[in-house]
């Protein structure tokens, strides 16, 4: 017996349903993982490091949403609010395409004199790239340079894509030249 062929419309609906189910399973597994990890750590009397808390914050944002991650961050003890947890929440805002929150949070990090890393700058530039604000990326690059933060491979890739989006071929060439110069 031959299998019935699905129409184009039905195939698309089936793909969307599969994607929805995969995302739902992903979120459920993250939530279960977070709960199990928290229980195991407390049963064993394990103290979490600031690095653990930054990872936990990121997992909470993925599994439970940005608001839950924000609440977790707010309730962290002052000693845990380091560049690691700040950077993790900044990255969460950027992934969620929350430009105003990300920009304000980046300013807060500057006020607190956290030494920003290429990761912080890359997060904000990726946000600008995804929200089609390519014109903001060169100023972030200049800020990085002014703060003596060396661009990494990811930085150069974002920067070149911004130049391409602006149809600035000479800009792409400048980025390539700078990559060669910086090694």
From TrEMBL:
Output the superkingdom of the source species. Eukaryota
Return the GO cellular component terms, semicolon-separated: mitochondrion
Which positions carry the signal peptide feature in this UniProt record?
none
Q: Output the InterPro entries linked to this UniProt entry.
A: PPR_rpt, TPR-like_helical_dom_sf
Q: Which GO molecular-function terms appear in the entry?
A: mRNA binding
The PPR repeats lie at 82-116, 117-151, 152-183
Q: Which UniProt keywords apply?
A: Repeat
**Family of this protein:** Belongs to the PPR family. P subfamily.
- The protein's name is Pentatricopeptide repeat-containing protein
Species source reads: Linum tenue
């Amino acid at each position: 017996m031959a299998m019935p062929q699905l129409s184009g419309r039905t195939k698309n609906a089936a793909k969307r349903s599969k994607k929805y189910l995969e995302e739902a399973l992903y979120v459920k597994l993250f939530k279960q993982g977070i709960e199990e990890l928290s229980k195991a750590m407390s049963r064993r009397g394990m103290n979490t490091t600031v690095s653990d808390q930054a990872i936990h914050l990121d997992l909470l944002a993925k599994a439970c949403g940005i608001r839950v991650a924000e609440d977790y961050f707010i309730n962290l003890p002052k000693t845990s609010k380091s560049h690691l947890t700040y950077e993790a929440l900044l990255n969460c805002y950027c992934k969620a395409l929350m430009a105003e929150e990300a920009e304000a949070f980046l300013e807060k990090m500057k006020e607190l004199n956290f030494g920003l890393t290429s990761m912080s700058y890359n997060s904000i530039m990726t946000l600008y790239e995804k929200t089609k604000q390519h014109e903001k990326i060169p100023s972030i690059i200049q800020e990085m340079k002014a703060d003596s933060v060396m661009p990494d491979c990811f930085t150069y890739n974002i920067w070149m894509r911004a130049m391409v989006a602006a149809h600035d071929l000479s800009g792409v060439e400048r980025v390539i030249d700078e990559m060669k110069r910086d090694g």
